[in-house]
Design goal:
Elements lengths: L23 H6 L3 H15 L5 H7 L5 E6 L5 E5 L8 H21 L4 E6 L7 H17 L1 H6 E12 L6 E11 L4 H12 L5 E5 L3 H13 L9 H11 L5 E5 L17 E6 H7 L4 H12 L42
Antiparallel strand pairs: 1-2, 1-8, 3-5, 3-6, 4-5, 4-7
Helix pairs in contact: 2-3, 2-9, 4-8, 5-7, 5-9
């Protein structure tokens, strides 16, 4: 690659050198290699090998990708096939960006926003039982009259760690709420009542909406660290959270969205060529370079610049088949593969 052409890989993401042109998924995974390897290992164990079930879907995440151009604006984006799995770090990162903006916008408009953390006493009970009880206790807390008087609604996120001191699971809930003043002592008393003795809570005002939104979005997209656990513990965590919601809204918080909306005007996006084709031509083809630089810089790409004539099979990609792909619109899709 010529030294006059900007690198395709941001320095802060990776310093890895590729022997051949990487796929779009390869580039994205290099910023989260440990998390990806841990997820692949656990899915392989649970589904019978790296070429089966969720492990295979994870391996194929975003390996199919296309450069596309909006016919009206000239904007260039990369469209890709995503696995949508909960423990896929690439999908989690994409969804995290959306949630951060959504929660931050809601906090700015919320009435006296506060961050609350609710924990349970450590116990040797199976993790699945602890998670079930925590969810039930939180639901009961929101029903309590004193809590409803002070809190008009909010957004909650589940997180789980394993204590280094006693080796027990530490499931807890973070929630950003809106409403009136709620004394810490009253919150702890209410929580102790609904949990039959767990009184450790935390409540503090939100002074930096962006920071709080970024923190809680991490919990919404990655409730635990698979890479930091031995396989048996990681498997227990994945199984305990399988099919469960790990974030949600209630009351006034329902005005925010935690799921990216499907891309509108899909018929307006036309293929410029597959990621692999454009990248392979990057050093020798002016159109390929223009496409990549427009994507990296956000500059408008003039009409007529394309590599799609080389990818004959992609000529009609933006018609009915285009519904199978998205622009990193990530959905929690643990139970069934994408359509």
């Amino acid at each position: 690659m010529s030294s006059s052409v900007p690198s395709l890989v941001h320095n802060q993401q990776t310093s890895v050198q590729f022997d051949s042109k990487p796929t779009y998924g390869d580039l994205l995974r290099h910023s989260c290699e440990r998390q990806y390897a841990a997820a692949l290992r656990i899915y392989s164990i649970l589904d019978g090998g790296p070429d089966s079930g969720r492990a295979a879907r994870l391996s194929g995440c975003r390996t199919s990708a296309w450069f596309t151009r909006h016919v009206d604006t000239g904007e260039v984006r990369v469209a890709s096939s995503s696995c949508g799995l909960r423990w896929c770090p690439v999908c989690s990162n994409a969804r995290r960006n959306y949630i951060t903006h959504s929660v931050s916008d809601w906090i700015v408009k919320a009435d006296h926003p506060k961050l609350i953390t609710l924990t349970l006493k450590h116990t040797h009970a199976p993790l699945e039982h602890q998670v079930t009880h925590l969810y039930n206790f939180f639901r009961e807390l929101r029903r309590r009259k004193d809590f409803r008087k002070a809190v008009t609604g909010g957004v909650w996120f589940f997180q789980i760690k394993k204590s280094r001191t006693d080796g027990m699971w530490h499931p807890h809930i973070h929630t950003v709420v809106a409403g009136k003043y709620l004394p810490h002592r009253r919150l702890s008393r209410l929580w102790s009542q609904v949990t039959y003795g767990s009184f450790v809570t935390d409540i503090r005002p939100v002074h930096d909406p962006q920071k709080v939104a970024n923190d809680v979005a991490r919990y919404a997209t990655c409730p635990g660290d698979l890479a930091g656990l031995p396989p048996d513990d990681a498997i227990e965590m994945v199984q305990a959270l399988h099919g469960r919601r790990i974030c949600g809204t209630w009351g006034s918080g329902r005005s925010m969205s935690l799921r990216p909306k499907p891309i509108e005007e899909k018929g307006k996006w036309k293929s410029l060529g597959s990621w692999q084709t454009v990248m392979e031509l990057y050093d020798t083809d002016a159109d390929a370079r223009a496409i990549v630089l427009s994507w990296k810089t956000g500059r408008t790409l003039p009409e007529g610049i394309t590599c799609s004539h080389i990818d004959k099979a992609l000529d009609n990609l933006m018609d009915p088949a285009w519904a199978d792909y998205d622009f990193d619109s990530i959905y929690d899709n643990e139970r069934s593969p994408p359509v």
